Amino acid sequence: MRGFGVIPGHTGFDKIELGDEKTLDTHSYIHYLHHKYFEVNYGDGLIPFDKWFGTWHDGRQDADCRMNERMAKRQKSAT
User: Fold this and answer.
1) Residues 6 or more apart from 19 whose CB is under 8 A from it?
2) 41's torsion region: left (phi>0), alpha (psi -120 to 50) or beta?
């Protein structure tokens, strides 16, 4: 499945049917948050870099608060 590269995350579908009742979970809803905010969800889910580096956002309000705090902190340090 790795041969697909970034394609599954950009299809706009949550799951792709592969036949024989097998599906591929694209996690596109999570990756679209990256396109909305850019500051989150850089990875593709195979290796949890976003969780390790604190850039994971799953759409919940607490993840939104963490993202806003991180951005405010970075902005403050830049001035």
Assistant:
1) none
2) left
Q: Radius of gyration over alpha carbons of the chain, in Å?
A: 15
Q: How far apart are CA 42 and CA 56, in angstroms?
A: 8
Q: What are the domain boundaries of the chain?
A: 2-78
pLDDT in tens, the chain (79 residues): 444 555 555 666 566 566 777 765 555 667 777 788 888 888 766 678 888 998 888 888 999 999 999 999 988 998 7
Report the distance separating Cα 11 and Cα 33, nearest Å: 14
Separation between Cα atoms, residue 14 and residue 12, nearest integer Å? 7
Residues 63/64/66/67 CA torsion (nearest 10 deg)? 120
Model confidence pTM above 0.85:
no
